[in-house]
Design a protein that fits this description.
InterPro entries: ADH-like_C, ADH_N_2, ER, GroES-like_sf, MDR_fam, NAD(P)-bd_dom_sf. The longest helix is centred in the last third of the chain and has 13 residues. The chain has 2 domains: 183 residues, Medium-chain alcohol dehydrogenases, catalytic domain (Quinone Oxidoreductase, Chain A, domain 1), CATH 3.90.180.10; 146 residues, NAD(P)-binding Rossmann-like Domain (Rossmann fold, 3-Layer(aba) Sandwich). The protein has 9 helices and 17 strands. The protein binds NADPH dihydro-nicotinamide-adenine-dinucleotide phosphate (NDP). NADPH dihydro-nicotinamide-adenine-dinucleotide phosphate binds next to helix 2 and strand 17.
Length: 362
Amino acid sequence: QVIFRDYVTGFLSESDLLINSTTVNLKVPAGSMTALVKNLYLSCDPYMRNRMRKPDPSSPATALSFIPGKPISGFGVSKVMDSGHPDYKEGDLLWGAVGWEEYSVITPIPNLHFKIHHTDVPLSHYTGLLGNVTHFNVLVHHCLPYTFLCSLAGMPGMTAYAGFYEICSPKKGETVFVSAASGAVGQLVGQFAKLMGCYVVGSAGSKEKVDLLKNKFGFDEAFNYKEETDLNAALKRCFPVGIDIYFENVGGKMLDAVILNMRPHGRIAACGMISQYNLQIPEAVYNLWLITYKRIRIQGFNTIDYLHKYSEFLEFVLPYIRQGKITYVEDVADGLESAPAALVGLFHGKNVGKQLVVVSRD
Ligand code: NDP
């Protein structure tokens, strides 16, 4: 198990998460409506950092903070090993809420634990490309004699889909900028925008990632923001006529520079602002006043509100995956012991593509 040591201030570090060994009862009581699952893949997501803040009634982001001394939880792909629930049987593959541990005892609930029906695509994709959100808070029963509240934020595939098509109102020929563009969400947004016939530019934090954007995901242009001394100038170079759509993943200085380069009536989908998650005091965005002047629409969103679109999303995306028209890069950390480093690495740009942890391959 990966245990949450205590509430975190400042940058998350590996020592905030402890590996614990315990014993597991491999049977669940008949009729208990629970199932014992073996966790195969775990999803590493930036929102998990926000669940490490000390609960504060004035901050909704802390309503679902992890409990010190207990395993952290998130999204994963798992296999049913034993079931006391009539709708789930041994061998069923599920994706949904699980603890960060080798085995979890779950109470399967529709919209929280989904049976995997399409197995002709890699199972790991259900942590990212094909993952969705759960919109319930639920009691997750673990292998230890306790329970805790668990709720999950959005997953990359649906996030990119809802954020781009619903929030950005894209049109063919428009100019699109994506930050954290090689990550779990960003790589898909860029590909969706290209499918729509947009001009697409991405920013990322290394040469390897920039190459990926241009040569694998088909972005028209890309730059390494860590090597640019002037983000405003970098954006002007890539967008001589300005930006129609900004898919915002990072916030801070990038957002400030983007606003300067937005075209009138541009749209900003505020998906996330990872550059702020480890800060005690968020950075100021100095150019916000230009939003009015340029008539820019900036809209935050949570994928949780688009759960009803999941089957539409699958119908849209599965043919593209099967035809190889959408590609998805994953960064796979091996073994539960590597999970703390994988999660921490998100906040230092160590992941190349969707970060996940393989706990077991079967
Ligand atoms: P990624 O796979 O993109 O991983 C995070 C990446 O963010 C890193 O690899 C790094 O890439 C970049 N990054 C980290 N720290 C900073 C920093 N200080 N400044 C700039 N970039 C940084 O994560 P996801 O694709 O899963 O998530 C992307 C965003 O989407 C996050 O903000 C997340 O919170 C949000 N999100 C929102 C959802 C919603 O429902 N609204 C649902 C899911 C995600 P690089 O090397 O390029 O710096």
